[in-house]
Write a structure and sequence with these properties.
- The protein is α/β, with parallel strands linked by helices and about 425 residues long.
- It folds into 2 domains: about 270 residues, UDP-N-acetylmuramoyl-L-alanine:D-glutamate ligase, CATH 3.40.1190.10; about 120 residues, Protein-Tyrosine Phosphatase, Chain A (Alpha-Beta Complex), CATH 3.90.190.
- Helix content is about 35%, strand content about 20%.
- α2 runs parallel beside α5 and α3 packs across α9.
């Protein structure tokens, strides 16, 4: 069994919140996370695009910057970027070989190992700042072992309720665990949840209070933004689609400013950000496909809102979902955006639901079933626009088909 096969096999053991194992692992590795500054980006939705935008702004400023995200779509090395480029697979493999015995000794979980692996890779790459996307929750997530200079909490909505809590207030308190007393923080959560975050005594800027945004749509090209901070206005463009894309770009800009990044670098980074699989447009059979990992009701509402703003009208929609998700809530949000729904499943993930179990949630909308992502794409009409959304595992299998790439073939659980 290769080291990567060994690591992927550990996905089956699930998620085990807590910081003891990852701390033990990092100690055995010589505390690599102490060799660079860090930013934690958490939230229910939008944390990936916010983190990617912030990392692009830091890189544009001349700062050697790492970006840690999860899950990956097509290649494991996507999780570890340095100045916008994947760490070479050979380097990742070598580092994992060295991490493995220590991880076994610490009895670390899959995500704890991946977090420690990222810290080791970033330290050895001479990174100055690492932007770390939080995995699940915040307070007990493995990434919270770092000591961030700044933290971002994008949004809070119901998701992973079996672990994080049954209410948005409980989830907000879990996510607020990434904040540090007296240190800068930026958030886009609903104002009703500000007190939950402020209880951590961070120096908090909130969207709609210290951070004001005026957004002008550029259609499929993104947004022009004027962002008013307490001490400066910032003007920038972002290619991120949807009102939530504009908000996430604004959060990243506010975070970058608080980290000392100047306006020119913020503009360059915002304009050049790339965030695959999330409101990403790719060509297909003379038309285009919009990919989006809208896997919870809040994300589905954001996708439907973005499509309304783009003036598309109802579109063919390919959808798949993992077990444990609020499929009824997602389907309710997406139904109005769909001219028809093609239901399928990602073949590499045992967690996904069979298409026939999804069908009742789309009653009243024309539904077809497809056995695989390839079959689902074949059902799309030529030309025009279509949407593929839901599970990121599905996005991860569809995207290489659109690009002609060869994906990994290991099972996907996390």
């Amino acid at each position: 069994m290769t080291d990567l096969d060994w690591l992927f096999a550990r996905q089956r053991f699930g998620v085990h919140p807590g910081l003891g194992r990852v701390q033990a692992l990092l100690t055995r590795l010589g505390e690599p996370q102490r060799n660079f500054r860090s930013v934690l980006v958490g939230g229910t939705n939008g944390k990936g695009s916010t983190a990617a935008s912030l990392a692009a702004m830091l890189t544009a400023s001349g700062t050697r910057t790492a970006l840690f995200t999860s899950p990956h779509l097509t290649r494991f090395a996507e999780r570890f970027l340095v100045d916008g480029r994947e760490c070479p697979a050979e380097r990742v493999g070598d580092a994992l070989r060295r991490v493995r015995p220590h991880a076994e000794a610490a009895e670390a979980s899959f995500f704890e190992i991946v977090t420690a692996l990222g810290c080791l890779l970033f330290a050895e790459a001479g990174v100055e700042v690492a932007v770390m996307e939080v995995g699940l929750g915040g307070r007990l997530d493995a990434t919270n072992i770092l000591d961030p200079d700044l933290s971002v909490i994008t949004t809070v909505a119901l998701d992973h309720t079996e672990i994080l809590g049954e209410t948005v207030e409980a989830i907000a308190e879990e996510k607020a665990g990434i904040l540090r007393p007296g240190r800068p923080a930026v958030t886009g959560v609903d104002p009703a949840l500000w007190p939950r975050l402020e209880a951590q005594s961070a120096n908090l800027w909130a969207l709609g209070r210290e951070v004001q945004v005026e957004a002008q749509s550029r259609g499929w090209d993104g947004w022009n933004l004027r962002i008013r901070l307490p001490d400066v206005p910032l003007d920038l463009r972002t290619p991120l689609l949807g009102e939530h894309g504009a908000r996430n770009a604004a959060l990243a800009a506010a975070a970058a400013w608080r980290l000392g990044v100047g306006e020119p670098a913020i503009r360059v980074g915002a304009a050049g950000v790339v965030w695959p699989g999330r409101m990403e447009v790719l060509p297909w059979r003379g038309g285009r496909v919009l990919l989006d990992g809208a896997h919870n009701p809040a994300g589905a509402h954001a996708l439907a809102s973005a499509l309304r703003d783009l003036g598309t009208g109802p579109l063919p929609l390919i959808f798949g979902a993992a077990s444990g998700k609020d499929v009824a809530g997602v389907a309710s949000a997406l139904r109005e955006a769909a001219s028809e729904v093609i239901l399928t499943r990602a073949h590499l993930s045992p967690r996904v639901l069979p298409p026939e179990e999804l069908a009742p949630h789309f009653a009243g909308t024309p539904v077809r079933l497809a056995d695989s992502p390839q079959d689902a794409l074949a059902l799309l009409p030529e030309g025009g626009t279509a949407v593929v959304c839901g599970s990121l595992y599905l996005i991860g299998e569809v995207r290489p088909l659109l690009l002609g790439e060869v994906p990994e073939t290991r099972e996907r659980w996390q």
